[in-house]
Structures are given as structure tokens and as C-alpha cells.
Amino acid sequence: MVVLASPPAADHIPLLRSPDPGDYFSGMPVIDLCSPGAPRAIADACERFGFFKLVNHGVATDAMDRLESEAVTFFSQPQADKDRSGPAYPFGYGSKRIGLNGDMGWLEYLLLAVDDSASLSGAVPSGSAFRRALNEYIGAVRKVAVRVMEAMAEGLGIAPLDALSKMVTAAGSDQVFRVNHYPPCAALQGLGCSATGFGEHTDPQLVSVLRSNGTSGLQIALQDGGQWVSVPSDRDALFVNVGDSLQVLTNGRFKSVKHRVVANSLKSRVSLIYFGGPPLTQRIAPLPQLLGEGEQSLYTEFTWSEYKKAAYKSRLGDNRLAQFQK
């Protein structure tokens, strides 16, 4: 932990070794969502890495660019104006502090609730260009999440096709949208280290769908040995990762990927993340269709509400599933 010299001077941000060119993930699965082989390829990527890059996804470039532009405009406001959209307890504007349990990162963010119709609630003014851009993008990316989860079911060979996706389309589904801004951290330029933008963690939901600008910074931990590798940026693609709840539903067959963000010393990073979660009362347990003869569940059953509460009480890097493992 260090105290960064640039403002705000009192924030303690963990440091990481700056990524090297050789750290990039050369074996990342790249999947065309419209390809006939997409279901099997998605299932394979979720089993091997818990993560993949999605192309030909159908979200209009204009919609992605509009939201990025509006996000940049929002984060460019004076601090006092941004603070009026916070604090993030849990929804709204936040800066540096991630959650309530001491985690810190070199970022500012908006955390937003999404209702059943894939529209926003709270934090962003109704009728604003920013809100319109958010609603347009979230509506489109939610459809992608549903298509991806249907492809997961097909790739796993389970029926019905909406066995997984119905959890995010059901009334009361718990969907969240996050807009992250990682400012340049020029104070560390040339020192061989970088500030932690967002510390290592897994996502508790079912799936997360991310889009970022052209600035790198996202890293994932490989399943075999935990080596950290950097994900090459691609502002036209979407990146999908498996969450803890989906790992349980597949009885560990799909892996919830550990990931983090390393702040860039010279360039801003803006990322847009849709988190698809089930209704609070949804029971999370391995799907019977995926349990072979005599195979036992690796986890004790829980509701999404129970797991969500446990997640809010934890630190980012905690293994939240450990208390539910048999």
C-alpha cells in the first residue's frame, strides 16, 4: 500500500507490477455469436477460462460510442457536480472506495440498478442524453446476455434453451450496470509499477458483459496456476465472464474467472459492464440436467439474496463461494 502524491493525497491505493508485452493473453477464445459453432465454443471457453471475447454480437457501434462519449462527459464534470450523484450505497457515484469494507482503487464509477424492462432507475437524470444512451445500450447488451446464456445451455446439451437465461428475464431479476472510469495515474509513470484500478475478484452474478474503450488494463487469472494475463483491448468487441452463481449452477463445470484492472499511467480507461443476476428468491443449486448418475452437488443450496448479502459483507479478493462448498 502506498500514498499517491497526486490528488486526492490521502487515498491509499495498492500497487501492482506494470504489465509487460509478454503478459498478453494470446490464447483468448474469440467467438462469433452468429456462428453455428458458437454454443459449443462458448461452453468450452467457460470450462477452460470462464471468459471469452465476443464478436459479431449485434450491438450497434453507434450505441457503444454514444454511451462512452456521455460517460466521458459525466466524469469530466467538476468533482462537486459528480458527488451530487452519490454516494454509492450501493447505487450512484463513487470514487476510489469500492464497497464498504476497505477496498480501494484508482477509479471513479457509477453503479446503477436496472429494472425488468432493462431501463435504469435512479442516479442519472430522466430525459438526459446520458440516460437515453444508457437505456439504449443496456437494452441491446441485455439481449446479448440472453443469447449467450441460451448458447451456453445449448453447448451444455440441456433443455429447455432458456434454462439459464430465464433467470435474467424473469420478473424481479437483479440486474446491475456499472460505468467505470480509470483516470491516468501519471505519478507512477516510469516506475515499473501501476496503481490498482479494481482489485482482484470474481463477479457474484451469473454473467458479466463488458465493453471498454481502446485502453488496456483488464487482466484475468488463468485457471491452471493462477497466472495473471492481460486482455488486449478491442473497443468493438464484448467480453463475457462467468460469475459465481453460474459456476454453482453448472456444479463447477463453468469457472467463475478471477479478474482485476491495472490503471494506465498515461491513458484513461472507460468500461461499461452489464451484470445479469437472478431474482432475489431464486435458489442457486446445480441444475439436475448437469448432474451425472451418482454425481453430488459440490455446493450447499442458497438463494441469490443470501449470496448477495454475503458478497456485500466480503472484501473483493475473498473466496465468497468457500462458505457454500461442501
Automatic annotation (TrEMBL):
Which segments constitute the Fe2OG dioxygenase domain? 172-278
Instruction: Name the SUPFAM superfamilies for this protein.
Output: Clavaminate synthase-like
The record's keywords, sorted A to Z, are: Dioxygenase, Iron, Metal-binding, Oxidoreductase
**Could you tell me the EC number(s) of this protein?**
1.14.11.13
Which reactions fall under this protein's catalytic activity?
Answer: gibberellin A1 + 2-oxoglutarate + O2 = gibberellin A8 + succinate + CO2
* UniProt enzyme class: oxidoreductase
User: Which Pfam families does the UniProt record give?
Assistant: 2OG-FeII_Oxy (PF03171), DIOX_N (PF14226)
Please, one GO biological process term? response to light stimulus
Cofactor(s) for this UniProt protein: L-ascorbate
Q: Name one GO molecular function term.
A: metal ion binding
- Top-level taxon in the UniProt lineage: Eukaryota
Q: Which PANTHER family match?
A: 2-OXOGLUTARATE (2OG) AND FE(II)-DEPENDENT OXYGENASE SUPERFAMILY PROTEIN-RELATED
Q: Which family does it belong to?
A: Belongs to the iron/ascorbate-dependent oxidoreductase family. GA2OX subfamily.
The name this protein goes by in its record: gibberellin 2beta-dioxygenase
